[in-house]
Structure formats: C-alpha cells, structure tokens
C-alpha cells in the first residue's frame, strides 16, 4: 500500500436543495424527484434505486446493477434546475413521459434521453400548484393559483389544452383523479371539491373544517387522494388525515396524526396502504385492515410511524414494496415494507440518500486544487499542505492553510450542470443545459487572474 | 363461653392486593384477591362486605363464572380452584388441580373448563397455560386432573396472557416474544420485537390486553410504549402501531367494553385513557397516589378500578372522574415510624403514602385519614432522595403530635422536627412549631413525657440523636405579639454522656425519670433537675431497646442488646435483677398492664415472649409466630376488657397485640376461633337461625333474657360496642318486616324500655363530649344513606316506625338508634 495524505475538506459549503415532490412511474420502475432548486432527478428501482445513468444519449443503456453504478460513480440522470422555473408537481403520463409544472405557470415535458427540457407550454392560469395524470395517462389536470382546473390532452410530441373545469376562488393545492377517470378531486383552502370530468361541473363541495368548533385559522388541504371505492382521502394543515365519502359528502374517518400539518400523502396501487408525511419530519403508514379475521369489514388503521427526517416531509410516494419520502432536509428515504419482501436481501434495507449522487467536486491533481460546483457558481480552492510525516491516523499540522482562490459566477438563469478543472489547474470548464464555458486561470504569485476563452 | 386453648395468629390487614385483577360483579360489587382471601367490597359504600377465606395460600386469580354471574371462581397457589357463591360467601365447590396455580382465566365459550397457568413439570421457571376440565360431579371437593396444554412457555404473571374476541384466540407475551394461538384454526403465530436497549429501558413486554370486538391486541412494554397489533393472523403481514406516553414501564392495560378506548397505567400513578387508538387523543387522571398495578373494567363499562402497589383500590367513573378510594393499610416503602397508637382515635399510626402519616382504623380495616407531614410534592423517580417521615410520637391524650422527617443524605442529612397541635374545631392536627436541624445527625428516638394530669404546661419532649446528645424540648409562651398561637416549643436542655451516640430514650410511667441509652450504656436522668442519676451497662453489645416497667413493676427498667441479651435492672437497688439470652427485635410494653411483649428472631422464625419485669419467667411463649420477620409490634387498648377464659391469656385482656411483618402485613393474636373472628355476619346469621320461631316471640323472649345475657354475650365482635348489642328488642323491631309485627301501640313500651336500659349503661363521657358526637353524627348521616340502598326490601317498615317515634326520642336516643341500624342486615337474605 502506498502512503496517502488525507485532506479534511471542510470548506465545501454545499447546501443541498430540499425534495419538493416525488412521482412514481405507474407500473414502472422509476421514481422522479424534484428539488426546491428546480432540479429533477430520476431514480430506477430496478437498479436498486440508483440514479439512472444515461450513456451516449441512448435510453437503452441503463446501468446494470446499481451497486456497480454507485461504486463507479457514473454521472447520474439529473436535469438541472432553472432560475425561473420551480417544480411544484411531477407526473408520469403516457408510459414514460415525465411532466413537471411549477410556479412559473408552465407545464414542462422533460427529455429523459438528453436530460433537458423538451418543451414547455404555458398553463394560462397563473402559478401551477398541482398536476395529476389520469389512470390511462392520456390526460393531465393542473390546479392553478386562480382556482381553475385545466385539462390537457397528452398527444405525441407535446400536450394540448383541452378544457377548463368549473372555476371557483381559491388556489388548487392538490389534485387526484378517480381511477376510472370520471372524476377529479381537488383540494383547496378549507374545502375540497369533486369535479365531473365529462361535464366539467363541481359535483360535490366539502368544507373540511365544518364540524370543528371555533376555527381560528384556515385549514389548508395539502394533499388529496381519490380511491376507487369513492373515498377521498385528504391531509390538512390541522394534522388530520380524513376519509370522506364524496357522494354523500360525509366524513368516514378522521385520524389526527400530528399537531402540525400533514403535508403529503400517497396511496399504494392496491389501495390498502397510505403513507403520509408531516411537517415534524415524521411519516406514518395507514393500512386498510380487516376488523375481524375473515370478515369483510375493513378499517383504516394508523400503523407504523417513522422518523427519518429532521424537517418537513414535503413529498411521499408509495411503491409496491417500499415507502418513499423526501423532505426539506434534502434526504430521500426509502423504507422497504418487510412483509412484502420475499427474503432478506439487498432490497430489504432501509436506504437514505443524503448526498447528491453527482460529481460536484473535481480535482487538479498536480496543482493541488479543488473545484466545487454550486448551482449558480463555482469555487476554486487550493489544498493545505504539510511538511511533516506521521503514522497512520495521526493529524498532521498544516504549514499552509487551504486557500480560496476564486469564485466564478455563471451567467444566465440556467443552473450549472457539470464542471471540471484540468490536472495542471490552469483550465476550468463548466456547462449549463445549453452552453459550454471554458476559462484559463493564471497564477501570478499570490494573485489569480482568469480569462474567458 | 370458653376460650379455645390456643392463640391464633390472624392476619387483619395490609394483605397485598396484587394477586390478580379485581373483578366487578354484575350488581356493583367489587371482588378482589387479598392475600389468602377474596374480599368483596360494595362499590357504593366502599365497605368490605365479605371476606371469603378458604384457600391455604395466596389467591392468584378471580373470575366470575361466565354462565352464572353470581358465582366466582378463584385460584390459588395451594393448587385448588374454588367456586364461590359470593353473595352469601359460601364456597360451592373446590376443584383440586394439584400443581401451583398462578393465574386463572374463564371463557364464556368453554362450558366446563377454565384456563390456568401452572409451572411446567420438571422444569424450573417455565410455565404453561392449560385448560382444566371441571367435572360436574356432585360433592364439594372434587379432583380436576383433566388438563390439556394450550400454550407453552408463557409468563407466570396473570397480566401477560389475554383472551381475544369471543375466545377466538389467546395471546401471551414473554420477554420480547408475543405468541397468538387461534383455537379454531389450531394455528400458533409468533412475533417478536427487536431487543434493543434504550436509555429508558428495554422494550420487553409487560402486559397484554385484547380488544373485545375486533382483532387487535394491545401490549405494554418496559420502556413505556404501548403497541397495538393487528393483522396478526398473517405471519408476515402483521402490523402494529405505537402509543407512547408513559416514561416508565406500562404496568397494565384494559380496553373499554366497546373497545373504543384503552386505559393504561404505570409507575407514574397516572391513568391514561387513549381514544380511538390514537396517539393524539388522550385523557389523563393524574395523582392517583402510587403506581398502578392492575386495571379492570366493570362489565357495563360504567366504572373502572385500579389496584395500586400500596394496596389501595381506586374506583373511577367512565368519564375518568375519580369516584372512590378503598384503602386499608397503605403499604409504604419503609415503615420508619414504627407502630404508634393514636390515643384519641385508637387508630394505628404509621408511614402511609410518601411523606404522609396514615391513621388506620383496626376495627373497620380502613384508613381514617392521611396527614401530610412533609408537605412537598412527591416525584416518582427512581434514585431520587425524598424527604420522608422517620419518627412519630403522640402525647398522652393525643393533643400533641411530634414528627421528624429527614432526607436521606449520607453526608449531610436534612432534618426537621415538627410539632402539631390537635385542633378541636377542624378535628385535625395543625402545625405549631417547626424546628430545622434539631440535631446535627439522624434522630434515633423521640418520646413525650406521658403525664396525664400535667398535660398542658409541663409537657416535655425528648429527642435522642446520633450526634451524641439528647435534647429536651418544652413549651414556652410565645412572646411575639404577631404570632398566631400562644405557645411554641424550644430546646430546654441538652444532655450527653461520654460522647456516645444516643440511641433510645424512654420516660418512666410517672414521668420522673428519663432513661437514655448511649450505645452500650443506659443512663437514667431526673426529669426535673436533669441530673444523671445512675448508669447501667451490660456488655457486650449496644442497647437496642429500652423500656420502663409499668404499674406494680415501675421500679424496673428493661433493655435489649445487640448480642441477644434481655436485661432487667432494678432502679431502687441500681442492680441487674435478671437477664436472659434472647435476640430481641421488638420490645413493646403494654400501656395498660405490667406486661411486656418481646419478639425474637431466631433461625428464621419469630417467637413471642410475654413477661412481667418482676418475674424472670415469661408468662406466655409462642414459638414460630409466623414465617415472616416481624418488624414492629404495638399494643392497642381494647374498648372494653375482653373476657379471657384461660389464665394464660390474661395479658390480652386489656389490650390487643398487633404485629407488622416485613411484607407489611398486619397480624394480631386472637383467642377466638376462626369462624367467630372472620365472619361476624354469618355467625350472627347462624344464631338467628337457631332461635327463630316467629320474629315476635323472639322479640319478647329475647327481651326477657336480655338482662342476664348482657355481660356474657361474647358472640359479637369487639367492633360493636356494648350498648349496641344489648337491645335486641330494638333490633328485632327494626329488622322484622312490617306485616308480621304486632301493632305499634303494643310495641312502643317495649321499645322505649329497651332504650332506657341502654341509656343507663352508657358512660357519661360520651354525652359530655359534644364535639365527638358531632362528628359521629355526620358519619351516621352517611350511614343512613348507605342503609337505604342496601336494604331495599325492608326499609319501608323501619322507616315508618321511626317516623312515628322520633318525636318521643331524645337526641342521644336517636343517635343510638342510628348506631343500631348500622349493623349487618345480611341475615335478611336467609328469609
């Protein structure tokens, strides 16, 4: 074994962006994740949840076992963010097409092969808070700031505006299609509404805090789910998860989960399990369990609590074998359901994604330089050095402190996608989704000058 | 009536209630396993109605017969199951199983079998749940040998097995494992929790409860969590949710009758009501006094009852309101005060709740009241040093109470001496003087000078401390004009002897001499001049106890030493009169006679010696008094001298001797036979039955015989005072149904006559003491209400009769009448 000097790099002040939303591909093995800075990441379940690798532009060339992909550290499938484009909602439609919508008011389709925005359509309703695709993946519904729900037809090569549903005041914060595609449930402030898709009319309006005495603050329906039995599940800012019969407009069950808001909710495909995420960082599972052995009467029971996050859990997803949650603490946690696992193995392990699986640091070996990549700028540092040698594990005194050489701000609204420094340290390059920049760095004594090539 | 030849040791209180969960009967009685007995309490009045004895060892389980709610099964460590008719207190059947029974369960589904936990044959510390077939054969004592094992490897605690909805399954927990057995499918599922050790403790299972209508099991854990298990018929897809409030072990769980709410309790002495199995909706009933051991619900769901570790029973309404508390002798962590008799109420006084002094009424087996001495919030936390009461002394008339509290601190004990004055108006003790740090070190003994005639101004309190001095405290007029009271206490004299630790102090009967023991030496002081009169020493060994002889033996001083010597010194000759080799633990003089009781502890058995100081030969010896170590003893004066047949037991005539064992069971010596003592009511019933021809002839006949009978009537318990017994005419009049009575005009003279006679007997003191009567009257009022509920079928006639006659009765007579009505009416049920 050779000898190594280990540097403790404590000057990389990366602030990872929190997870804003998650979308599981229906009947597929992929998970899309959007961060608060607008970046979108795609994970592949088949590859043990590692971020997808795309090589040479071909979608067929996915990485084999994810373990190998993780070890070798191949570039992951990340669509970098954009200053003007936040992502509030993601959904998969028409098989493997990924759409996102955000407060910019646009609906964006992502090109997963080229890892960039394929096309963008204005929603014409102000900021978009929510988006949902119907069961067959042919239609998209978006909920807008102005209270309108708009339907878009997913056509090859884009989306096409179809119609507006009945518009009422109050932003639509969440949407859910009935699995038979006939109705849409939409959650707003203090109320939830059910639309008939064919007529476009509001067929039911339920005040969620109607029976609560002396309501002082408004109740925000943060998340909604429409089950095939006709039950609408809502989670609200009062910390409740409520089950409604939409046709009668009655409350079936109410579970107070937390004293703070329940922000997110996801239903499994079999509709026997629900995961909710709260603003205290806890997630809870609800299960539909028979009341007695062999009887048909079933009830939703809050079962397992998990506390993996330190901050708000803004997004949850329910895959067939795992509960997935993402929070503002930038962690993505995948909690496998032990009872669905056939055997104990690699799949049955709790996973936490705390760090981005991207190369954000590049190293100039000869010049002893490090280049750090942030979303909007780059930093170049010189490593500290020492004269002494010591035994294994000893902390050596530094004769020269690490030095911050330069900070390079990128131009334009697009975020930096990747960056690199040459081994001699005199060339720095970075690229955004559309442009490539190359800089020459000169070292003059203590000073540093930079010139754009 | 001739007293039987032997003295019997009788348990009379403080028996642990921890054998099993209490059971509510269908008609609002509470049944509770208490030591070897099953006790029946009235939920309405908190009274102990019946004491069912018959088991030879600890009762470990009681369950109502699911097919007859007037019957009760009980199991015991002695290996038998008994079926009781608890309304009459009669054992119907006894099934002998053979091995130790540790828990009992019944199921409505199983017609003729019950479930018990027995130790597994041939293996130590493994237990199994078996079903016992109860044969239907005739006869009282039956063998039940038909056992079939249901579950193996269960825990011995009755809290760790529960039967599910309609007896479909049985669940048992042990360690970190939960096993569920389905009877119909014959399927056994095992689950376990991960054995993690956290800061708050491990997550071992401690108790289990099953939902009455749904498939849901609630388990309590040692780390304070409650888990609700569902879907447990799938080995893999089972699931559980967690409720967490308790910071310490969950001691017991109970579902409400509908299953909508769950009750849990633990060491925090807080009952928690969880609504809808939700973590967020819960209600609390705090400050229940001590750790909750068992929780049980009544079948109509209206009441719930908690048994506590200090032998208290609390009855709680369904809306989580405290309803009643049944408390006998409260078990405290350590009885440091000793057994003291309150001269005023004749109640036994000792440590109760932490920091409290309990006044325990021996006759009714009830706590009279609890006096908060320390007056600080008690915090339930292990390892926390709390101030506790260590010494108590009453003045001769009970007017003054001195208490010493200390906080257990090795280097620097925190001491307080408090003097309490009995306030006649509020009928309670009022703090008069508080002395911080009366001694530098622990106080070892404390006594008042008991001088009856000089009660007020020359009262002296002596405290002996480990700081090598004894101090004399006297009352002084308070000079401070702003002070609320006229007197306060201050130190008058400090005595010491060669810098030895003072260990015991004792006044002679006339109060002229004070004996203080300093390690190996006893010093005798003049209580007027505080001169050292003489010293006695009997090496080797330090003095453990000292006391003066009384009455004719007042010239003797008795001392017991560490190395097993009992010495008697003559104070006139200042010489050792006699000594005996005896390892004396307890030395207790009878205040009313010259007898002294000594309890020795030798080779794991306690022996009792009763002697007079003037003769070295003991009057009475009882070897092997009980298996437990006797900690304390006290002579309690009887209300009236008991007639003792045998010469040998004359020392029991004036007072009764009570012992407290180290398990805090209170025992006494009785000359009466078992049935006489245990069930006064059923005994009474027997007398009535043997005589009854018609109630009317009985009435007249009894009245004629009354005069002669008066003095010899021993069939009644000491509880009932003389004047209560001696008017059977009144009793008959009140107890007989109205339609069989002769006309009221005929009965009236007899009735009045009987009242007059009883009035003659009455002592003058009772009439004089107005305040006492006041208090009794309030008691009587509540008694009256209680009677109405109890004797529904017959209460119309006496009420009417009473209405006619009250105009002629004086106040004291009225009181008399009420007292009589307090007596037990259960014999009515025989008609």
From TrEMBL, chain A:
InterPro entries xref list: UTP4, WD40/YVTN_repeat-like_dom_sf, WD40_repeat_dom_sf, WD40_rpt
SUPFAM superfamilies attached to this UniProt entry: WD40 repeat-like
Pfam families to which the protein is assigned, alphabetical: WD40
GO biological process: maturation of SSU-rRNA from tricistronic rRNA transcript (SSU-rRNA, 5.8S rRNA, LSU-rRNA)
Molecular function as annotated in GO: RNA binding
GO cellular component: 90S preribosome; small-subunit processome; t-UTP complex
PANTHER family on file: U3 SMALL NUCLEOLAR RNA-ASSOCIATED PROTEIN 4 HOMOLOG
Protein name according to UniProt: UTP4 protein
Organism listed in the record: Pygoscelis papua
Automatic annotation (TrEMBL), chain B:
Annotated segments matching region Disordered: 764-808
Pfam families attached to this UniProt entry: Beta-prop_WDR75_1st, Beta-prop_WDR75_2nd
Ranges annotated as biased composition (Acidic residues): 766-797
One BP annotation, GO: positive regulation of transcription by RNA polymerase I
SUPFAM superfamilies: WD40 repeat-like (SSF50978)
Localization (cell): Nucleus, Nucleolus
Matches recorded under InterPro entries: Beta-prop_WDR75_2nd (IPR057644), WD40/YVTN_repeat-like_dom_sf (IPR015943), WD40_repeat_dom_sf (IPR036322), WD40_rpt (IPR001680), WDR75 (IPR053826)
Any GO molecular function: RNA binding
GO cellular component: small-subunit processome
Top-rank taxon: Eukaryota
Official protein name in the record: WDR75 protein
Organism: Pygoscelis papua
């Amino acid at each position: 074994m050779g000898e190594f000097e280990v540097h403790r790099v404590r000057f990389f002040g990366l602030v990872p962006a929190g997870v804003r939303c998650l979308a599981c591909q229906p009947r597929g093995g992929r998970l899309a994740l959007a961060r608060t800075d607008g970046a979108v990441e795609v994970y592949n379940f088949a590859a043990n949840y590692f971020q997808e690798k795309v090589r040479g532009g071909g979608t067929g060339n996915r990485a084999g076992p994810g373990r190998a992909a993780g070890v070798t550290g191949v570039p992951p499938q990340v669509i970098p963010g954009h200053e003007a484009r936040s992502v509030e909602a993601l959904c998969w439609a028409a098989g493997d097409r990924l759409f996102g919508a955000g407060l910019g008011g646009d609906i964006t389709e992502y090109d997963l092969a080229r890892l960039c925005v394929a096309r963008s359509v204005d929603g014409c309703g102000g900021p978009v808070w929510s988006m949902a695709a119907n069961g067959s993946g042919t239609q998209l519904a978006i909920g807008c700031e102005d209270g309108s729900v708009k339907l878009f037809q997913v056509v090859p090569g884009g989306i096409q505006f179809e119609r507006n549903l009945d518009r009422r005041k109050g932003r639509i914060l969440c949407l859910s299609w009935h699995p038979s595609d006939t109705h849409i449930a939409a959650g707003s402030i203090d109320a939830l509404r059910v639309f008939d898709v064919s007529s476009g009319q509001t067929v039911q309006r339920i005040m969620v805090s109607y029976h609560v005495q002396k309501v002082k603050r408004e109740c925000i329906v943060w998340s909604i789910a429409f089950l095939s039995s006709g039950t609408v599940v809502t989670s609200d800012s009062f910390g409740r998860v409520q089950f409604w019969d939409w046709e009668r407009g009655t409350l079936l069950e109410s579970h107070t989960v937390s004293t703070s808001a329940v922000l997110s909710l996801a239903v499994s495909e079999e509709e026997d399990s629900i995961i909710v995420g709260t603003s205290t960082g806890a997630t809870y599972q609800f299960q539909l369990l028979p009341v007695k052995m062999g009887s048909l009467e079933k009830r939703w029971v809050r079962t397992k609590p998990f506390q993996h996050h330190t901050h708000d859990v803004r997004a949850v997803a329910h895959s067939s074998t795992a509960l997935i949650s993402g929070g503002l603490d930038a962690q993505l946690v995948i909690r496998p359901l032990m009872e669905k696992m056939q055997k104990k193995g690699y799949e049955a392990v709790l996973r936490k994604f705390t760090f981005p699986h991207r190369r954000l640091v590049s190293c100039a070996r000869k010049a002893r330089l490090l280049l750090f990549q942030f979303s909007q700028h780059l930093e170049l540092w010189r490593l500290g050095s020492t004269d002494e040698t010591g035994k294994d594990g000893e902390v050596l005194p530094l004769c020269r402190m690490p030095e911050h050489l330069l900070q390079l701000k990128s131009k334009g609204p697009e975020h930096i996608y990747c960056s690199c420094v040459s081994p001699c340290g005199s060339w720095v390059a970075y690229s955004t989704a559309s442009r490539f920049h190359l800089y020459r760095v000169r070292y003059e004594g203590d000073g540093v000058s930079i010139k754009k090539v | 009536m001739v007293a039987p030849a032997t003295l019997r040791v009788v348990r009379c209180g403080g028996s642990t209630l921890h054998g099993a969960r209490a059971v509510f009967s269908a008609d609002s009685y509470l049944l509770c396993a208490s030591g070897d007995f099953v006790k029946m309490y009235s939920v309405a009045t908190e009274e102990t109605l019946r004491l069912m004895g018959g088991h030879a060892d600890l009762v470990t389980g009681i369950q109502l017969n699911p097919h007859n709610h007037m019957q009760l099964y009980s199991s015991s460590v002695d290996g038998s199951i008994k079926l009781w008719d608890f309304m009459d207190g009669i054992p119907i059947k006894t099934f002998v199983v053979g091995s130790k029974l540790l828990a009992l369960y019944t199921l409505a589904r199983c017609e003729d079998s019950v479930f018990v936990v027995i130790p597994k044959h041939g293996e130590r510390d493994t237990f199994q749940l078996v079903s016992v077939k109860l044969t239907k054969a005739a006869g009282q004592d039956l063998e039940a040998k038909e056992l079939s094992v249901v579950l193996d490897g269960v825990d011995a605690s009755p809290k760790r097995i529960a039967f599910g909805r309609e007896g479909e399954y049985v669940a048992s927990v042990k360690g970190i494992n939960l096993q569920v057995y389905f009877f119909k499918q014959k399927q056994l599922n095992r689950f376990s929790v991960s054995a993690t050790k956290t800061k708050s403790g491990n997550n071992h299972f401690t108790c289990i409860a099953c939902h009455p209508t749904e498939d849901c099991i609630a388990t309590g854990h040692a780390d304070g969590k409650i888990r609700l298990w569902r879907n447990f018929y799938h080995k893999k897809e089972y699931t559980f949710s967690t409720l967490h409030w308790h910071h310490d072990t969950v001691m017991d769980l109970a579902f409400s009758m509908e299953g909508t709410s769950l009750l849990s309790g633990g060491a925090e002495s807080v009952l928690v009501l969880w609504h809808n199995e939700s973590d967020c909706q819960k209600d609390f009933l705090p400050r229940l006094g001590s750790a909750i051991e068992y929780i049980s619900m009544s079948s109509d769901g209206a009441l719930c009852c908690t048994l506590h570790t200090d032998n208290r029973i609390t009855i709680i309404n369904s809306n989580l309101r405290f309803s009643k508390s049944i408390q006998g002798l409260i078990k405290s962590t350590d009885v440091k005060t000793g057994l003291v008799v309150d001269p005023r109420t004749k109640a036994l006084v000792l440590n109760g709740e932490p920091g409290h002094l309990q006044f325990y009424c021996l006759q009714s087996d009830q706590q009279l009241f609890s006096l908060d001495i320390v007056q600080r919030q008690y915090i339930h936390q292990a390892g926390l040093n709390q101030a506790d009461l260590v010494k108590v002394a009453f003045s001769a008339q009970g007017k003054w109470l001195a208490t010493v509290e200390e906080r257990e601190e090795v280097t620097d004990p925190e001491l307080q001496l408090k003097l309490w004055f009995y306030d006649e108006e509020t009928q309670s003790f009022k703090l008069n003087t508080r002395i911080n740090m009366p001694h530098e070190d622990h106080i070892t003994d404390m006594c008042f000078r008991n001088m009856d005639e000089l009660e007020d101004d020359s009262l002296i309190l002596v405290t002996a401390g480990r700081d090598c001095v004894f101090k004399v405290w006297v009352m002084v007029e308070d000079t401070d004009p702003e002070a609320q009271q006229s007197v306060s206490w201050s130190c008058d004299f400090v005595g010491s002897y060669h810098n030895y630790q003072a260990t015991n102090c004792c006044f002679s009967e006339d109060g002229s001499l004070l004996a203080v023991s300093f390690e190996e030496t006893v010093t005798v002081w003049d209580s007027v001049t505080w001169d050292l009169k003489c010293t006695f020493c009997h090496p080797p060994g330090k003095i453990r106890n000292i006391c003066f002889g009384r009455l004719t033996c007042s010239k003797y001083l008795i001392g017991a030493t560490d190395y097993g010597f009992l010495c008697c010194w003559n104070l006139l000759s200042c010489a050792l009169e006699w000594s005996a080799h005896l390892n004396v633990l307890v030395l207790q003089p009878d205040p009313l006679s010259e007898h002294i009781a000594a309890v020795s502890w030798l080779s794991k058995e306690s022996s009792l010696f009763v002697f007079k100081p003037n003769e070295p030969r003991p009057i009475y010896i009882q070897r092997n008094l009980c298996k437990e170590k006797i900690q304390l003893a006290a002579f309690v004066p009887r209300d009236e001298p008991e007639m003792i047949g045998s010469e040998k037991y004359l020392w029991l005539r004036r007072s009764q001797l009570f012992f407290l064992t180290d398990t805090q069971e209170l025992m006494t010596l009785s000359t009466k036979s078992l049935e006489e003592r245990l069930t006064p009511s059923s005994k009474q019933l027997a007398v009535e039955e043997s005589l009854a021809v018609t109630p009317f002839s009985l009435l007249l006949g009894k009245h004629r015989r009354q005069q002669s009978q008066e003095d010899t009537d021993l069939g009644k318990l000491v509880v009932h005072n003389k004047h209560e017994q001696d008017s059977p005419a009144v009793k008959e009049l009140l107890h007989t149904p109205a339609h069989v009575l002769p006309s009221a005009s005929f009965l009236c003279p007899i009735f009045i006559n009987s009242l007059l006679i009883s009035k003659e007997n009455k002592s003058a003191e009772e009439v004089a003491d107005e305040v006492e009567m006041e208090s009794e009257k309030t008691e009587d009022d509540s008694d009256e209400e209680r009677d109405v509920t109890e004797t529904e079928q017959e209460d119309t006639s006496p009420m009417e009769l009473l209405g006619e006659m009250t105009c002629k009765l004086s106040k004291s007579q009225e009181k008399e009448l009420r007292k009589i009505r307090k007596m037990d009416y259960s014999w009515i049920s025989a008609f």
